[in-house]
Design a protein that fits this description.
The chain is of the alpha/beta class. It folds into two domains: 1-33; 44-151, Alkaline Protease, subunit P, domain 1. Helices cover 19% and strands 12% of the residues. The protein has one helix at 3-31; strands at 51-53, 68-70, 85-87, 101-103, 118-120, 135-137. The protein has a six-stranded parallel beta sheet with strand order 1-2-3-4-5-6, with no helix packed on it.
Length: 151
């Protein structure tokens, strides 16, 4: 075997090695899991179709269903309420009622038993505790309403 023949065979083995390596890399890439868009993935899919995002959001929920809590301690004390939505720092924190909506920091802060309330704005319906059907929009709107008041 001449020197030129040895070089040709060495070159062919280099090409073969490169081809095997490229095939192996492409196979690994093709079989790797897909990357997620958000890391970590947002919370949700809890029992009862509940969704919570934020520190201690929906912290006490046991049998409640169809609730959404977004923000620090949103719907914190809710245990078995239905269809409540709270967005904001401590929104509906003391709520145990049903069909309540709060958007804004501490809106409504004192609500415990009232159903079907809507509070939009910081401290909206802040002191209202157990009435049904109140609606307040704006910062501090209805903040001084208590039991028996309608707004």
């Amino acid at each position: 075997m001449t020197t030129s023949q040895l070089r040709k065979s060495a070159q062919w083995s280099l090409w073969r090695r490169a081809l095997v390596l490229i095939s192996l890399v492409l196979t690994c890439v093709a079989l790797s899991p897909l990357a997620r868009a958000v890391t970590p993935a947002p919370d949700g899919g809890y029992p009862g179709s509940n969704t919570a995002e934020g520190t201690q959001a929906l912290q006490s929920c046991t049998t409640g269903a169809f609730n959404t809590a977004l923000g620090f301690q949103a719907l914190f004390h809710l245990t078995d309420g239905l269809h409540n939505t709270a967005t904001g720092f401590r929104a509906l924190i003391n709520n145990t009622g049903d069909f309540d909506v709060a958007i804004g920091s501490q809106a409504p802060l004192a609500n415990t038993l009232g159903d079907s309330k809507t509070a939009v704005g910081t401290n909206a319906l802040m002191r209202n505790t157990s009435d049904d059907g109140n609606i307040a929009a704006g910062a501090n709107a209805g903040a001084n309403l208590t039991i028996g008041d309608k707004y």
